């Protein structure tokens, strides 16, 4: 049974069907959309005898990759926090961060959320959205530069909409952020771990600021400019 399912999921168009079916699980719980896709991805991984390179993990984690992730994450976070996010919130409304606000001043909650974020957001989302959805979709569309660009747009929209619970500002911000790192994946198609680190470091900064209940007033200052 597993072999037949694996053979079916190996079809080039299977990724499209998975992306169309996954949102249906959102009627049960929004997290099921993610876990359905992730489950399919791990099934493919297992049946392919753990061919990690198939999902863009073809390079070992090195100090150079860690340093590169830091050099990308810090300016990326500053651009979004000081320019993009304040602009979006000014025109589209504030983010809905109610799902994580209970970690403010809560050290235990903060640590637990950090662990969950690194496992399911940093690794899980990159493995699913870039390693499977974007890579498989690009290969389906022709595996050329135009195909990878179109795949980056489609999967970033898909990723942004999956964050609808954060409000319209959240959807647009997540789309722009996702598209940015999707372009990085286009340039580093065999080094998904770079994106995992960028995602994890980016979210770590954001979660830490929520825990400390501060953004140092930067976003409010910039928001006045708009």
Supply database-style keywords.
226 residues; transmembrane helix; mainly alpha; CPBP family intramembrane metalloprotease; metalloprotease; globular; 72% helix; disordered C terminus; 9 helices; transmembrane
Describe this structure in words.
The protein is mainly α and 226 residues long. The protein has one domain (53-223). The chain has nine helices and no strands. Helix 1 (2-9) packs across helix 3 (30-47) and helix 5 (107-140) packs antiparallel against helix 8 (192-212). The longest helix is centred in the middle third of the chain and has 34 residues, at 107-140. Residues 110-204 form the CAAX prenyl protease 2/Lysostaphin resistance protein A-like domain. The chain crosses the membrane at residues 12-45, 66-87, 107-124, 145-161, 167-185, 192-212.
Given the C-alpha coordinates, what overall shape results? globular
Tally of alpha and pi helices = 9
Structural class: mainly alpha
Q: How many β-strand runs?
A: 0
Largest sheet: none
User: Measured on Cα atoms, how large is the radius of gyration?
Assistant: 18 Å
| Distance separating the two termini | 57 Å
In oligomeric terms, what are we looking at?
single chain
The low-confidence parts are: 216-226
Strand content: under 5%
Number of domains: 1
